[in-house]
Amino acid sequence: MDNFLSPEFWLAVGQIIMIDILLGGDNAVVIALACRKLPDAQRRKGILWGTVGAILLRVVLIFFALTLLKIAFLKLIGAALLLWIGIKLLVPEDDDEHAGIEASDKLWSAVKTVIVADFVMSLDNVVAIAGAAESAGGEHQMPLVIFGLLVSIPIIVGGSQLVIKLMDRFPFVITLGGMLLGWIAGGMAIDDPALLAWVPTVPAAKPGGAPDVLPALHYACAVGGALLVLLVGKLLARRKS
């Protein structure tokens, strides 16, 4: 009980909520992009279940955070998945492709896209949440993480609904969303542990930690990922039309 009353505990709660709110900006875009083609009556369900699934998956990832991010090539695989999702969002779908698909199939397909994308995007961020929980000490680290993530759910859901409304009114928002996924993918790929021996690095921010990729190179790869999604997506969309 003393742990719940300590300043360290509530400081960690605030840190986790802030971290997840910041990550929720990306989540809101992904959820909105995945659910934008659902009927109005099912959009709310798609957003809700996609968000719940993504949050639960992130809780599971926290358990394995330190190990996951040390596995070589995992970020490269994740980056490739994000690029594929981003490009796919820019390619219009034919109406007859979905003529025989029930609405419920569309709903769970959107939910699956949300969960897969959030899994990939979470790899870079779960360590930050785990570190905030660890700073509280004691035996309540996982309840602390779960509490912080649950508090952020309504914020992510509300953000997703806002993004969907923007996409309905301004179609170019879809392009920006796809490029955002490319940006994240480019930055994630260059940070893969398998590449650290081959790219310019700077000393780690924390003592004893692995070196960090040179910031200029990190941002250059992020820009390259965004442009790759834009160019390939537009090219495939033009061919399909």
Characterise this structure.
The chain is mainly alpha-helical. The chain has one domain. The protein is 75% helix and 2% strand. A two-stranded antiparallel sheet has the order 1-2. α3 packs across α7 and α5 runs parallel beside α10.
Counted up, domains total 1
Order of helices and strands: HHHHHHHHHEEH
Based on the structure, what is the oligomeric state of the protein chains? single chain
**Over the alpha carbons, how many angstroms does the gyration radius reach?**
19 Å
Biggest sheet record:
2 strands, antiparallel
Give the strand line-up of the largest sheet. Answer: 1-2
Distance between the termini: 62 Å
Category by helix and strand content: mainly alpha
Q: Tally of extended strands?
A: 2
Overall pLDDT: 74
Q: How big a fraction of the residues is strand?
A: under 5%
Low-confidence stretches: 95-105
Count of individual helical segments: 10
The share of residues in helices is over 70%
